[in-house]
Amino acid sequence: MNLSNTREYMKGKTLVISGATRGIGKAILYKFAQNGVNIAFTYNKNEEEANKIIADVESKYQIKAKAYPLNVLELEQYIELFKKIDEDFSGINFFISNAIIYGKSVAGGFAPFMRLKPKGLNNIYTATVLAFVVGAQEAAKRMKENGGGTIISLSSTGNLVYMPNYAGHGNSKNAVETMVKYAAQELGEFKIRVNAVSGGPIDTDALRAFPDYDIVKQKVEEQSPLNRMGTPEDLAGAAFFLCDETQSSWITGQTIVIDGGTTFK
Ligand SMILES: NC(=O)c1ccc[n+]([C@@H]2O[C@H](COP(=O)([O-])OP(=O)(O)OC[C@H]3O[C@@H](n4cnc5c(N)ncnc54)[C@H](OP(=O)(O)O)[C@@H]3O)[C@@H](O)[C@H]2O)c1
Asked: Could you give the CA distance from residue 200 to residue 31 in angstroms, rounded to a whole number?
């Protein structure tokens, strides 16, 4: 990778990312900020953490960062969010749909098959697929005016291999990967590339909330030829690569799987 080309290309561009106060979103935010990219990111409850991140990245990397509240279950909030970002930043180059819901809102969605309930499943679909659609539409409108851009959805290998209780998430990740392919076909003429980054089990709060976290962790460490769980940084590298036009300009409509070799076992 030619690092000087990458840095030159990325510097001064703007990333919009949902749910970047923790885990994978936070690692992606830092990866882009370290490379001179300005950041507009969202939080749901953790405003205090969002403010800490802003102070940290602005002082360390001399970029602009701003945080906005967003609940991906209230999709109309996305329209207002982008209007606010228009006021604060000059153009959007990258959009990453990363936020995921947890806790009460996934009740009946994160469960064994016989206990699945429409409401929980619908919430997961809304947070995963509909939030991607609405967010990506708003981003693409701006990117068209800007001469292009890159859109990414996070996905997970729970649509390739069985994970207990994960039917709702796995299905929605399947659906969002298909949506990515359709968006890529229709947005290519505007020089907008659309891809998914799919992760195997990554050590974050979301995974630690699984009731069988310790078993999952042990199993992944045994299954991976690399003998470890994935880290948020493992996915951040792929997201960065996909946004870097100097490295990935002919990649669109794809899912890049970062699974430590676990899905082939
Ligand atoms: N962890 C894994 O094993 C794994 C593997 C592959 C793919 N992924 C995918 O990677 C993405 C990030 O996962 P993660 O593990 O990093 O999650 P996480 O650590 O639980 O972080 C979730 C983020 O989403 C935000 N959020 C929570 N509820 C929200 C809501 N209702 N509306 C808007 N934002 C909300 C949180 O904000 P607050 O902090 O403000 O609440 C936080 O920033 C997800 O799409 C996930 O499916 C995860």
From this structure: 20
Cβ burial 11-50 (10 Å sphere, 16+ → b, else e): eebbbbbbbbbbbbbbbbbbbbbbbbbbbbbbbbeeeeeb
Instruction: Name the residue at shortest CA distance from atom 31 of ligand 1.
Output: 71
Contacts by 84-87 with C-beta closer than 8 Å and gap 24+?
Answer: 85/16, 85/40, 86/142
Q: Mind listing the pLDDT tens digit for each residue in 90-103?
A: 999 999 999 999 99
Query: Which of the residues 31, 166, 182, 191 is marked catalytic?
Result: 166
- Identify whether 26 is a catalytic site residue: no
Q: What is the mean pLDDT of residues 68-77?
A: 98
Closest CA to 170 of 138, 220, 124, 208: 124
Beta strand 65-69 with 94-97 is: unpaired
Tokens 């996909």 locate to 242
pLDDT, tens only, 84-143: 999 999 999 999 999 999 999 999 999 999 999 999 999 999 999 999 999 999 999 999
Mean pLDDT of 231-256: 98
Q: Across the chain, how many H-helices and E-strands are there?
A: 11, 7
- The closest alpha carbon to 249, from 189, 193, 195, belongs to 193
Where do the domains of the chain lie, and which CATH numbers do they carry? Answer: 3-258 (3.40.50.720)
How far is the first Cα of the chain from the last one, in angstroms, to the nearest whole number?
30
Ligand 1 binding site (Cβ under 6 Å of any ligand atom) = 18-25, 43-46, 70-73, 98-102, 154, 156, 199, 201-202, 204-207
State yes or no: pLDDT of 210 exceeds 90: no
* Amino acid residing at 242: L
Q: Which atom of ligand 1 is nearest to the CA of 205?
A: 19
